[in-house]
Specification:
Elements: E1 5-16, E2 19-31, E3 36-40, H1 47-54, E4 62-67, E5 70-71, H2 77-87, E6 88-92, H3 103-113, H4 120-132, H5 148-160, E7 166-170, H6 178-193, E8 198-201, H7 205-208, E9 213-218, E10 221-227, H8 230-235
Parallel strand pairs: 3-8, 3-9, 6-7, 7-8
Antiparallel strand pairs: 1-2, 1-4, 4-5, 9-10
Helix pairs in contact: 3-4, 3-5, 4-5, 5-6
């Protein structure tokens, strides 16, 4: 089975002050399908730049990136948008829910953008996604009637509903209290067990230790790539 992500010598340079700043300095990595990977590193390390590359929000200055068999570095803006729409489910620190829509309508909107026609099948698919994240009893609630953890789960359902090849989460627990964080991490573990591919960008060790593999970025380089032991995960250290 082909890996979901293949990155070779990925480099991203930004012009600055008449010179060039290298945010990524030749990163190479492979992520098999069905993995749960955490990307960590201090502020300014390049982890957020790597996230934008993996999420097809930007293209590399040099090197190659294949996502689910698609060569990303050769795509134009329309091509990148199509990959994001069909292959990636995004989960952000901010929930980005539309306040006037119910949980069900927010999730169903993702299918509208993908071109699904109105009808029972689209509605049932959105309901199934919300049931998957434990919100089958909150379908008609608007965001202001939901807790922060529930809003994040709506956002995850919205990401899941299109059956993406990759779930990409950027600091997903940043706006959550400790209880909601624990519930969200347990959900991530269930999604991983169900076969979904998750890549989580985080500065929180508690979050990273719930993955099965941890990548550490520093000064634009991949300085560590190690498996996470279940003992460390349970200990939170």
């Amino acid at each position: 089975m082909n890996p979901i992500i293949e990155v070779q010598n990925l480099t991203r340079a930004y012009p600055m002050g008449g010179g060039v700043v290298l945010a990524l300095r030749g990163i190479t990595l492979t992520i098999p399908r069905g993995s749960f990977v955490a990307i960590t590193g201090p502020s300014g390390s390049g982890k957020s730049t790597l996230m934008t590359m993996l999420g097809c929000l930007d293209t590399p200055s040099a090197g190659s990136y294949q996502l689910d068999g698609v060569a990303i570095e050769h795509l134009n803006a329309d091509g990148l948008a199509a990959v994001r729409r069909h292959k990636i489910g995004f989960i952000f620190q901010q929930f980005h829910l539309l306040p006037r829509l119910s949980a069900l309508e927010n999730v169903e909107l993702a299918l509208v953008y993908q071109g699904w026609p109105a009808g029972a099948e689209r509605r049932e698919r959105a309901i199934a996604a919300l049931e998957m994240v434990g919100l089958g009893d909150r379908l008609r609630h608007r965001p202001n009637a939901l807790s922060g953890g529930q809003q994040q789960r709506v956002a995850i359902a919205r990401a899941l509903v299109r059956s993406p090849a990759l779930l990409l989460a950027d600091e997903p627990t940043g706006n959550l209290d400790s209880q909601a964080t624990g519930e969200l991490l347990a959900l991530f573990e269930r999604l991983h067990a169900a076969g979904h591919t998750l890549v989580v960008v985080t500065h929180e060790l508690e979050v990273a230790l719930r993955a099965e593999r941890m990548l550490t970025i520093r000064d634009g380089l991949l300085v560590e790539d190690r498996p996470v032991s279940r003992e460390a995960s349970r200990a939170g250290a």
